[in-house]
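Researcher: Can you fold this with adenosine-5'-diphosphate in place?
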Amino acid sequence: MGYIRSEALKITQDRKPVTITEPAERRSEIYSTNVFNDAAMSHFMTKDAYNAVMDAINHGKKIDRKAADQVANGMKSWAISKGATHYTHWFQPLTGGTAEKHDAFFEPKGDGTAVDKFDGGQLVQQEPDASSFPNGGIRNTFEARGYTAWDPSSPAFMIGTTLCIPTIFVSYTGEALDNKVPLLRALQSIDHSATEVARYFDKNVNKVISTLGWEQEYFLVDSALAASRPDLMMAGRLLLGHEAAKGQQLEDHYFGSIPERALSFMRELEIECIKLGIPVKTRHNEVAPNQFELAPLYEEANLAVDHNSLLMDLMSKIAIRHNFKVLFHEKPFAGVNGSGKHNNWSLATDTGVNLLSPGKTPKSNLQFLTFFINTIKAVHDHADLLRASIASANNDHRLGANEAPPAIISVFIGKHLTEVLDELENVSDGSLSPEEKTELKLNVVGKIPEILLDNTDRNRTSPFAFTGNKFEFRAVGSSANCAKAMTILNMIVSEQLRNFKIEVDILIEKGMKKDDALFNVLRELIKSSKKIRFEGDGYSEDWVNEAKKRGLNNFKSTPEALKAQISKSTLSLYEKHSIMNKVEVEARYEIELEEYIKKIQIEGRILGDIARNHVIPTAITYQNTLIANVKGLKDIFGNEFEKYASEQINLIREISGHISTIISTVDKMTDERKKANKIDHADKKADAYCKNVKPLFDKIRYACDKLELLIDDELWPLTKYRELLFVR
Ligand code: ADP
Ligand code: MG
């Protein structure tokens, strides 16, 4: 780390794309070859072991020790056949990243010989040294140990020569220390609630899974250029730097041809992903220069979350070979589009039906409307919690900044479905006449397929949009672990479906026909969730005012947004669905606040450091040149010199002005940090960082950026926007 700008630019100019040759086999042939998938399991495992795993996946059955030994044995044989030397329990601690600790299969027997050992015990549970993972006080209150435990619902895979076993991470007393445990519990909850409701329409439904298709946005920056920017290396974003004269105004990058170097990187990444069973399909340029997106086909949510974490890991590693640094930060470059991770979400039955896909028959349409309207109602009732699920210091730069969805949660459904809901809402009270019912159902049938075709109807400014056969939660941050958003989304929809079922059953018990009961409850849901629906421009000031009138919250900062995580109603919701207990929820809240505080604290330190140690010395050097120039002019022109030196003198003054602003503001920021650090409670401390420390960044940055424009380009030590964004 630590190139100066001129060195970094020279290195970058000499770069050649790394040549990546496609493997001899077609991609369809290498798909999933590094995964202990169904085919590998049935080949390497006994029938009993295979059935035990399938029972665990499909019915949540426990795997006993004997079966676990057999599974371990099969897994080991498979892994060794692929050249594995080590295994690891792969997990996702609350840092948001992934963690692993490698152990060798190899074990000396003590008689001079050795064996490869891996049994059920090693498969099922491990105790990594977990003391430095965040735990929000859980392990202080309870017990210092953390355990990883095998998650059979996500298959083991090979990276290099290591067998990776997806695991959950829990404390000795069973509290979740990771993002996966709450997700698995939420998925269980929605499976139960959605199955019950789906059975109104089809008695053959026995299981409902939640599906997730994420779209990952990111930036690629040359690694030498990145290394010349301490802010990019340590905070993941530029804390200062003037925008380039050319940014994304021309929108010539979007869907443009992908630069050769980036394409090589993507090719290698895709090949690795495909071998690992991550079904990556699309790649394209994004709106901003050097910004890209990658999206796989959707999968069961737990697997999709694992795959996204794995992908981010792979991307960082593979990028190094291509001399790139991948930026996952939500807003690496102020003034340029940020990055998100759209979470496309739906529900699917074990009979192969997408519950959010408008059907062709009246019955399947009523089913669609049921899940569609209940989802809207869930978002309506728990908008604040959904907002909290995506809150982070990074994402604060994005939400509401006129490019990403606003911080106000709303649902977009498009013109046709709005009409359908309006009609349904106005159906007369009591039971429906047969004509009304048929009309309604037919209307739905007739209209819905159009939305799939009508792309103009897509609203890019909505945080939660219906896109034909799924909802797309667009406000998720690019660096986030999708588990957080998916846990909450699935939980709130599960809660809503449960309530829905209760209400419908009451009407049925009173003697109403099932269809009428469904229609009646749905109609009330449409009415009571109306205010969350918004079809207009989410970026407009009008919407901010309108939302306020409607009573929708607009939490612009993380400390504000996170509060919904620990409200009484949230706690009881988590407990009701057995997703997290009070200790687990509060621990997470604490961790997220701490993370927020640390991020702003680190950014403040880096900014202060760069401003003082890079910007000011450069400004003084340039100012000295100007001073020498003025002195020289004085020598030549004597008393008349001002006629020739007035611009230089102005510049000297201007530079001094900015220098003094920077110094006084950096000092003030340091003072505010000190004050904030003395605050005991994390929520108040985060507030202080948000309200008193962070706003000073802008003032410091403004002065530094002005200097960047004034000072001789040759002298400027920091790689500029135009170089970071346009050098390929
Ligand atoms: P966009 O125009 O936003 O790129 P696409 O139609 O290309 O939208 O789909 C985006 C993502 O939606 C893909 O990752 C895809 O797998 C996912 N997706 C499609 N159907 C579903 C579904 N039923 N459940 C979850 N995700 C889905
Ligand atoms: Mg999308």
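Model: Folded with adenosine-5'-diphosphate in place. The longest helix spans residues 582-637.
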